[in-house]
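Structure tokens please, single chain.
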Amino acid sequence: MKSSPGLRQLADGRWRFRLYVDGTKGGRRVQVTLPRGTTRRDAEAEYSAAVARAAARSGRPIPKRLTFEDAADEYLAVQKTRVSEGTRRNIERTVSRLKATFGKRLVSSLRPSDVTAYQTERLAEKVKASTVNIEVTCLVAIVRKVYAWGWLEKDPLPRGSVESLPMPAPKTDFFRVEEWQRFTEALEDRRPEAVPFFRALVLTAARVGELVELTWAGIDLAGKRITFEMSKKRGEPKSLPITPELAEILDALPRGVGRAPVFTRPGGSPWTTATARTAFYSARDAARLRKGLSVHSIRHSAASWQAQAGIPLQKIKESLGHSNIRQTLRYSHLMTEHLTEAVEAIAAVEKSGRRHRGATERT
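Here you go.
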């Protein structure tokens, strides 16, 4: 079996390759010798990755001193064409915070210890661990992206070198049926124009951002299907049947076409996540409901009610648009019907034991 062109094995067993780091013969040529014990397969993989990085450099202007700020701007330029507007704004806010700390640093000078120091600093500022983890994930994504482009000789934050902060299991708070009734009644009194939006939110088990971004292109009233673009899943759509209750809501809305938003406010402006949250908290507080209930609790409620009705987890997963069943398992503790036979068996044995004891005592 021949090795890849440019890759050869030395007499001592080590592997070595040479290549032009900028992908052109007029550029700088380097020689790389891999550590002892590297297998042929790993050597060829390393060589192929190096060639790909060099090819990525070809014809692209690479900053001579690549700062984190430069890398972040390049990353944002790519991401803004691939994510929704709401997601883009969230990324921009996160990047802005990261720039405040790492902006002028050379990306090649970053070390895992810098990330650990950043985590400690942010926690000292009373920032939630979940928020810090989002920031660090974004930081690593930026570094990995420019490394993949071939703008770095090596990844300064290799896989496994950066650990997320530990977090408690996510809280799954949901509306009880009577609480939901009180909430919708408060909406009717204070924000009647918001009732269709929030009823559709629970009937579709959608995220607020998904419903805000829903357009009439995703509504097929004749085929009784509603389709969400699901930007969180890299464009994979989620389609659901339109129930009679949801059809009634959609039929009552001003009809639009194409990319026109389905849910609009009085005056024709579309709902946003911010206006939805404002309406939600106004109605929640007016109904004197628990402060732990949030807009996302509506999605949890839809899933929880499905679980309590005995719907299989796989079907709940699909209706929520989860990419992994592990995300859906948080609702499994609400599905107890399949355990009835098991607990009844325990009760039967326990009961027989008490009968046996009573008979012994009487004799």
